[in-house]
Amino acid sequence: MKGTSYTACGLAALALAATAARPALAQSADSTFARARQLVVGGNGAAGRLVIDSIISANPPGVPIYGEALYWRAALAASSADAERDYRRVIVEYPLSPHTSDALYALAQLESARGDRAAATNHLEQFLADNPHHEERPRATMLFVRLLLEQNQLPRGCTALRQTIAELPDTQVETRNQLEYYLPRCEAADVGAGGAAPVGAASPAKSSRESGKPVPTVSPKARYTLQIAAYKSRTEAEALVKKLVARGMDARVVELSKLYRVRVGKYVTREGALAAQRDLKAKKITTVLTDIEPAGK
Hints:
By secondary structure, the chain is of the alpha+beta class. The chain has three domains: 8-106; 118-195; 208-291, 2-Layer Sandwich (Alpha-Beta Plaits). The chain is 57% helix and 9% strand. It has 14 helices and four strands. It has a four-stranded antiparallel beta sheet, sandwiched between helices. A hairpin with a 2-residue loop joins strand 2 and strand 3 (259-267). Helix 6 (100-113) runs antiparallel to helix 7 and helix 8 (137-150) runs antiparallel to helix 9. The longest helix is centred in the first third of the chain and has 18 residues, at 24-41. The radius of gyration is 20 Å and the shape is globular. The protein starts with 7 loop residues before the first helix and ends in a 6-residue tail after the last strand.
């Protein structure tokens, strides 16, 4: 089975495979990104990254090509820390980018490689929920299952495992064998499909509402918030905020990098933010967990 060591070139190959055909105006940019990748893969990383940096310098934040350049800068980054920073920016600042899903998966791989199982599991869960037909779904599920089992979350892990095996085409024999490797652990723990939680469902732990313990919200020490959407128009963002406030949510508009982001809540702990994210997901509202900027937004 493959390990969890992910190089910049490996992530770049995944990124290139995920690039879809776009109009002629975008194809010239694609060729520039491809040239940058070839330089990095060929051993001239500094020159390749300089090409990407030149695109970032020549374009204002908020335009689509800026988001694409951020993604490629992450995919070709010299360090995992640099890659993680830019992947997060793509996810939060460019949620409509065609690379957002790939950034989400790559970020989960990096988090897994540095041992942050909880963060990786959260991002993989979102990736799987948003991408039912993505070509990397089997591999993402395999990582998702392994991380859940390592955290002893057998019901969720075993349900995801069985669901993926059932949906896997007969042609993907190697992937099936790798997934079935984990079945004995599920059988040994007697985890039945009937009592397990589906992929993307909340964990068996009680929610803050059920346990009676309040989830930390607004605080001067808050570190996390949940982003629902990002718009180029403040009017659109404020319209969504109005609807969310009418539903009793602590929603607001945050202007960053020429985009108007709709965010809800401010949370002291990651656990509190994740609990709120699960509650919103139960209401069919998809969010992205992000850090609050120094200005407290």
